[in-house]
Amino acid sequence: MKTRRADRLVDMTDYLLNRPRKLVSLTHFAERYDSAKSSISEDLAILKRAFHERGIGLLETLPGAAGGARFVPYMLQGEADEFINELVTEVSDETRVLPGGYVFLSDLLGRPDILRRVGRLIATQYINTEIDAVMTAATKGVPMAQAVATELNVPFVIVRNDSKITEGPTMSVNYLTGSSKRVEKMELSRRSLPTGSRVLVVDDFMKAGGTIKGMMSLVGEFEGTVVGAAVFAEGRVSERVVTKYTSLIHVDTLTSDGAGITVAPGNYQSEIYTTEL
Amino acid sequence: MKTRRADRLVDMTDYLLNRPRKLVSLTHFAERYDSAKSSISEDLAILKRAFHERGIGLLETLPGAAGGARFVPYMLQGEADEFINELVTEVSDETRVLPGGYVFLSDLLGRPDILRRVGRLIATQYINTEIDAVMTAATKGVPMAQAVATELNVPFVIVRNDSKITEGPTMSVNYLTGSSKRVEKMELSRRSLPTGSRVLVVDDFMKAGGTIKGMMSLVGEFEGTVVGAAVFAEGRVSERVVTKYTSLIHVDTLTSDGAGITVAPGNYQSEIYTTEL
């Protein structure tokens, strides 16, 4: 039975939102709704307009009988600025400061409403970039990696400091922790990442950047290419071992006894919103 | 400017899908689209029908001027069976068996398309249950916890075996690992979970269930209530310390030298699909 246009619009929206960056053919939709391809094309034009007007994302449409549509999620700068201001306010809370100048952020990185927007915002930077996988470090980078990978619709892989017997053969590298200059080891299951992958490296927090740099060298061991690096928060540090990265917020704990915290937007504006969407 | 119905349908679908289980008022939509509440009510009736017919989920609508709509995602049994069969096929691969009878599953738990369906399926069991938080154990339970928490639209918290200095004050419990009967310790940041929360416990893999049982006692220390327990895969074991749980697949490695693997659907059918949706 033919599906009505109103019902098609609702289901196509759901279908495309759940499959970011994948081309869905006109034929597929025509069969799904028992409708003519010309009707589906008109539907897609409506979706494209609504996605654009509401800042949901780009709907790329390929014309012709062999054509289809591909949904590429993005976040407009206005929404991004509002989101980052919300984060800055949430993190600007002295009770988050822990002894040693560390900052408690785990609650924020456990909230789906925040993670969804983190993923959407980081994915915006790579709207025209081919990415095969997202890489992060256990444990606290995982939520952000999953959020970004969901919007890019690619797998994510988890690098660990401790070897687990349930991971099988691993590839490892040694790296210098940026701040304390200790040598540590990180490893990734050999099976997790195909050789030659294009990888986006993400983490929850970056000080000097030792962990990020370690992951980058691990990508090299897998003969892959580092497409970029992104962190939820960057701390204040005198010297960084990673020069090119995107951060959402900048956190500075002023004193070592945990008495103060200064939070500001990270460098996302200049890294992500360089060209008009 | 008034928004056209077609555009409203697309945007309302996006808006509701991104806010599962939250009531959105008619007033909010009426202002968002500069449209009459009566038109919004008609739109919601279309969404409700399409969501139902396509197995996207339930759209609960509250009538009247003070009313609104709440989207509750679920997965129909037909889709669930198809999904689980796909998983069984993917896991039935002798190269996944590692020395000691462990099974490599990390690749599957790093794929957004799989995680989305895992979350949707587990959330289906709790369609009428109030849940405040999802709890899991680091590191490999995290992706599943995030997937389930996303569909329930509640925070998730991560229990760890090792204390991290960036977590602040923690609450800890000792627990018996089910298979080896060693005593271990697990802890959760005090700040992560409000006292008295209703908690769903999830993990990637369960053998005897020691970790799950440990998490349950940790929920007790936070004066909370365990709403249920769910695992991606359960292994074969002679005795379990957890009796009530939901599993998606059942994995049995036949020999200790890694020569065979038998995979079957878990108990999800009898746990989740007991009443008609």
UniProtKB/TrEMBL annotation, chains A, B:
Keywords: DNA-binding, Transcription, Transcription regulation. Homodimer. Pfam families: Pribosyltran, PuR_N. The gene is purR_3. It comes from Periweissella fabaria. InterPro entries: PRTase-like, PRTase_dom, Pur/Pyrimidine_PRTase, PuR_N, PurR_Bsub, WH-like_DNA-bd_sf, WH_DNA-bd_sf. Coiled coil: none annotated. Belongs to the purine/pyrimidine phosphoribosyltransferase family. PurR subfamily. This is Pur operon repressor. Residues 111-245 form the Phosphoribosyltransferase domain. Residues 4-73 form the Bacterial purine repressor N-terminal domain. It comes from the Bacteria.
